[in-house]
């Protein structure tokens, strides 16, 4: 099968050796595996981190967002059949999905939304699971709840933020404040449903006060947490919650004590990394998201289609992600 592999050394995305086209053996499904013909993929920050050597793993094939078609199933599979269209984010330490064929545990996959094509569906899995787990499992928001409370989403125009804003606006009564720094990204966040948009390059408190808010109940910090941490502690109300998904170089949590603030980390790979008893929850989340998409409650977060799945286009996607200028998700489709 065709695949794209990353090199043995840390190289910039612009270097042709960073990601290269290759031919690898076809994989064989184990008991609970689906063998999926990959139709479209999207690119996430974790792809760039592995390529840069910040996350160590054996497989040289990257990629954790797929939309495709089941071509074979393992002997114990019960949730899917050959021919089903699926979407999923896979596991961190199995071979990635930048290949024509890919294996995934059925507990981690969902049926693709019927109303989306493969490119639109590939934009969703990793960010949808991350956003859902962050909002409901970590920050403790409840569907239909949150009246009188506020959620501040730092970096709301990115992949996770683009789903999180929609989930919070559509499924809760929280007042949603998103941050974005450019007119283009601010408009995007408003289109996704944020009640208010502020600029994270400017002091946060004066902007919140201009909206009539003296603080917020919940914060989802999706990027540059260490740069904004002091301000986040300042604007959080007493007994508020801070949810984080990025990798701060350092984080001194002692200032959180006075307000009895709580810190919650979210990594969507935790359930598969530790094979937790509830790992099927990710299947359930994807099934629920597909239903919400098909009902018109949520929409795809595809930001830009970069062409077919090959090394050159993946290098472009990595470079664009590393520039921190992406809006929504970057998607590639077909071999």
Automatic annotation (TrEMBL):
It comes from the Bacteria. Homotetramer. Belongs to the zinc-containing alcohol dehydrogenase family. Quinone oxidoreductase subfamily. It is found in: Cytoplasm. Its main location: cytoplasm. The keyword Oxidoreductase applies. The lineage of its organism: Bacteria, Pseudomonadati, Pseudomonadota, Gammaproteobacteria, Pseudomonadales. It comes from Pseudomonas oryzihabitans. Keywords: Cytoplasm, Metal-binding, NADP, Oxidoreductase, RNA-binding, Zinc. GO terms for cellular component: cytoplasm. The keyword 4Fe-4S does not apply. One of its GO terms (molecular function) is zinc ion binding. InterPro entries: ADH-like_N, ADH_Zn_typ-1, ER, GroES-like_sf, NAD(P)-bd_dom_sf, Quin_OxRdtase/zeta-crystal_CS, Zinc-ADH_QOR/CCCR. This is Zinc-type alcohol dehydrogenase-like protein. Residues 14-332 form the Enoyl reductase (ER) domain. Pfam families: ADH_N, ADH_zinc_N_2.
């Amino acid at each position: 099968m065709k695949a794209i592999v990353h090199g043995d050394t840390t190289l910039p995305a612009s270097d042709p050796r960073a990601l290269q086209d290759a031919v690898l053996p076809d994989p064989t499904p184990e008991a609970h595996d689906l063998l999926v013909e990959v139709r479209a993929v999207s690119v996430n920050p974790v792809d760039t981190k592995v390529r840069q050597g910040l996350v160590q793993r054996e497989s040289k094939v990257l990629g954790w967002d797929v939309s495709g078609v089941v071509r074979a199933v393992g002997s114990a599979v019960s949730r899917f059949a050959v021919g089903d269209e699926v979407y999923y984010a896979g596991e961190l330490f199995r071979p990635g999905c930048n290949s024509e064929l890919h294996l995934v545990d059925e507990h981690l996959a969902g049926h693709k939304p019927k109303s989306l094509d493969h490119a639109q569906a590939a934009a969703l899995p990793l960010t949808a699971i991350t956003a859902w787990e962050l909002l409901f499992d970590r920050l403790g928001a409840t569907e239909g709840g949150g009246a009188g409370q506020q959620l501040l989403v730092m970096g709301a125009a990115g992949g996770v933020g683009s789903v999180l804003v929609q989930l919070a606006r559509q499924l809760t009564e929280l007042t949603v404040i998103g941050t974005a720094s450019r007119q283009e990204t601010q408009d995007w966040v408003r289109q996704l449903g944020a009640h208010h948009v502020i600029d994270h390059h400017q002091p946060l408190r004066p902007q919140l006060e201009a909206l009539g808010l003296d603080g917020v109940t919940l914060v989802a910090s999706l990027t540059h947490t260490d740069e904004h941490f002091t301000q986040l502690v300042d604007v959080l109300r007493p007994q508020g919650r801070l949810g984080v998904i990025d990798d701060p170089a350092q984080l001194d949590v002692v200032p959180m004590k006075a307000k009895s603030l709580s810190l919650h980390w979210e990594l969507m790979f935790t359930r598969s990394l530790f094979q937790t008893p509830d790992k099927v929850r990710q299947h359930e989340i994807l099934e629920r998201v597909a239903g919400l998409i098909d009902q018109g409650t949520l929409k795809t977060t595809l930001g830009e289609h970069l062409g077919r799945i090959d090394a050159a286009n993946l290098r472009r996607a990595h470079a664009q992600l590393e520039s921190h200028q992406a809006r929504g998700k970057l998607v590639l489709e077909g071999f």
